[in-house]
Design goal:
Largest sheet: 6 strands, parallel
CATH topology: Rossmann fold
GO molecular function, one term: thiamine pyrophosphate binding
Structural class: alpha/beta
Order of helices and strands: EHHEHEHEHHEHEHEEHH
Helix content: 40-55%
Strand order of the largest sheet: 3-2-4-5-7-6
Number of helices: 10
Distance between the termini: 12 Å
CATH architecture: 3-Layer(aba) Sandwich
Protein name: Thiamine pyrophosphate binding domain-containing protein
Family: Belongs to the TPP enzyme family.
Number of domains: 1
InterPro entries: DHS-like_NAD/FAD-binding_dom, THDP-binding, Thiamin_PyroP_enz_TPP-bd_dom, TPP_enz
CATH superfamily: Thiamin diphosphate (ThDP)-binding fold, Pyr/PP domains
Length: 231
C-alpha cells in the first residue's frame, strides 16, 4: 500500500508569489500541502499555528490530552497510510507526549509532531530540555529559524517518510510573530511506501517449520506488524 502526499500542481508557483508573514504561517502552509488532518491540543506555543490552519478550514481534531494527539496521529497512519501530523505546546504539553512518541519511534511511524519550544535566545525558568527528552526517546528534533522554515518542515516530512520514523518540529516561542526571510520552492513530495510483504515461502521451505510446530509441546508464535503488513 502506498500513499503520496498530495500537492497542487501550482504549489511551487504559489510559494514563490504568495507572501508569508510569520513563521507559524509558513509552517501552516506546509502542513496544508503535506497532510490531510491535524491532531492536537492547543496551548500558548502552538496557538498561532492552529489558528492559521483552522481559519482556512483545515481539518483539526482536538484531543483531551497531549499523548492522545500523538497516539491519534499514529493510529491515523496505521489505518490510512497517509502522512500523520500532531501538534502540542511547549513544556509539560510536550513532555505529556513522550510515551506515545516513544511508541511511534519504536514502531517506525512516519509522523511529524509540531511543538512550541523555548525561545531561540535561551530557555526561560519554566522551559525544559525538549530536544534532549525527544532524543532519549530516539526522536530527532528540528528547531526552526526565521530564514527558511518552510524548507525545514518540508525536509522533516521528506525524511520522516523516507526513513519511516517520527520527527519533532519545534517553533521557538520568540519566532511566533517573526516574519520569515525567504519562501521556499520545495522539491516534489516523496512517495510514502508501506513495508513490502515478504516473499512467500515455498513448500520445501515451509516443511521444516511445519514439522517443528507439529513436534512442539507448547508452540509459541510471536507475530508483529510485519506479519500484519504482509497479510
Amino acid at each position: 500500500m502506498t500513499a503520496v502526499a498530495d500537492r497542487p500542481a501550482n504549489a511551487a508557483a504559489s510559494l514563490a508569489t504568495e507572501a508569508i508573514a510569520t513563521v507559524p504561517q509558513a509552517v501552516a502552509r506546509v502542513v496544508r500541502e503535506r497532510a490531510t488532518v491535524l491532531f492536537g491540543l492547543m496551548g500558548n506555543g502552538n496557538a498561532h499555528l492552529i489558528s492559521e490552519l483552522t481559519s482556512t478550514g483545515f481539518p483539526f481534531v482536538t484531543v483531551r490530552h497531549e499523548a492522545g494527539a500523538v497516539a491519534a496521529a499514529d493510529a491515523y497512519f496505521r489505518a490510512s497510510g497517509q502522512p500523520a501530523t500532531a501538534t502540542v505546546t511547549y513544556g509539560a504539553g510536550f513532555t505529556n507526549t513522550l510515551t506515545a512518541l516513544s511508541e511511534a519511534a519504536i514502531a517506525r511511524i512516519p509522523l511529524i509532531l509540531i511543538v512550541g519550544d523555548a525561545p531561540s535566545s535561551g530557555p526561560r525558568f519554566f522551559d525544559v530540555d525538549q530536544v534532549g527528552m525527544a532524543a532519549a526517546a530516539g526522536v530527532e528534533t528540528v528547531r526552526l529559524d526565521a530564514c527558511d522554515p518552510a524548507a525545514q518542515v518540508h525536509d522533516a516530512y521528506d525524511r520522516a517518510a523516507a526513513e519511516s520514523r517520527p520527527i519533532v518540529v519545534a517553533i521557538p516561542y520568540d519566532l511566533v510573530e517573526v516574519p520569515v526571510q525567504a519562501a521556499t520552492q520545495p522539491a516534489g513530495a516523496p512517495q510514502l511506501t508501506m513495508p513490502a510483504p515478504a516473499t512467500a515461502l515455498s513448500a520445501a521451505e515451509l516443511e521444516p517449520l511445519i514439522a517443528a510446530l507439529r513436534g512442539a509441546e507448547r508452540p509459541l508464535i510471536i507475530a508483529g506488524r510485519g506479519v500484519v503488513d504482509s497479510a
